[in-house]
């Protein structure tokens, strides 16, 4: 069984959560069960209620869980079946992505800005441009977990290194200043 962890508050600027529910619905139709755990505080009851209602309509409500509070990453101990779903805007991933990867969490990125879909990374499996990419990736995990996990872990390492300057770049930048 696959567990997707979303470390995020539930608020009005997070209007993409139903994308995840739709993907789980499609996978469930194929008898692939994916659990979705929202780790974060509920700031907007309407968004929370919409997630709950939609999960019931899709008949996936038994696969959805909410902590309803924030939990520090240092207190999360993922199992081998845990993945961390992180929102990206095109190819841009925020600091929470860095933290997840540094903690060795298998991190999957989901592009939440359809205007930047053509800019979203096409070369990495762990960067999902849209719900179809996320669906395909989760289906691949269900069929060939070890190989896909290896790919995600290697891509996460590459992604992490791209966030930081190399020693040469640091030296050049300091000398430039």
Write the layout of secondary structure elements.
Layout: E1 2-7, H1 17-29, E2 34-41, H2 45-57, E3 64-68, E4 82-89, E5 92-93, H3 95-102, E6 107-111, E7 127-128, H4 131-143, H5 145-162, H6 167-176
Parallel strand pairs: 1-2, 1-4, 2-3, 4-6, 6-7
Antiparallel strand pairs: 4-5
Q: Any descriptors?
A:
177 residues, Rossmann fold, 7 strands
Summarize the structure.
The chain is an alpha/beta fold.
Description:
The structure is a single chain. The protein is of the alpha/beta class and 177 residues long. It has one domain: Glycogen Phosphorylase B (Rossmann fold, 3-Layer(aba) Sandwich), CATH 3.40.50. The chain has six helices and seven strands, in the order E-H-E-H-E-E-E-H-E-E-H-H-H. Strands 1, 2, 3, 4, 5, 6 and 7 form a seven-stranded mixed sheet that branches.
CATH class: Alpha Beta
Helix content: 40-55%
Number of strands: 7
Over the alpha carbons, how many angstroms does the gyration radius reach?
A: 17 Å
- Which CATH architecture is right? 3-Layer(aba) Sandwich
């Amino acid at each position: 069984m696959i567990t997707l962890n979303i470390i995020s508050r539930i608020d009005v600027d997070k209007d993409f959560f139903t994308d995840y529910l739709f993907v789980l619905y499609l996978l469930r139709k194929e008898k692939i069960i994916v659990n979705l755990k929202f780790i974060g505080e509920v700031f907007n009851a309407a968004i929370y209620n919409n997630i709950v209602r939609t999960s019931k309509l899709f008949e996936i409500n038994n696969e959805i869980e909410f902590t309803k509070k924030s939990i520090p990453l240092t207190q999360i101990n993922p199992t081998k079946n845990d993945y961390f779903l992180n929102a990206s805007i095109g190819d841009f991933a925020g600091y929470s992505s860095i933290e997840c990867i540094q903690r060795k969490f298998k991190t999957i990125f989901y592009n939440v800005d359809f205007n930047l879909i053509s800019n979203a990374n096409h070369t990495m499996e762990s960067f999902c441009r849209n719900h179809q990419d996320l669906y395909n990736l989760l289906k691949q995990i269900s069929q060939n977990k070890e190989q896909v996990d290896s790919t995600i872990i290697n891509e996460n390492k590459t992604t992490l290194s791209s966030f930081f300057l190399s020693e040469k770049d640091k030296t050049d930048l300091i000398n430039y200043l």
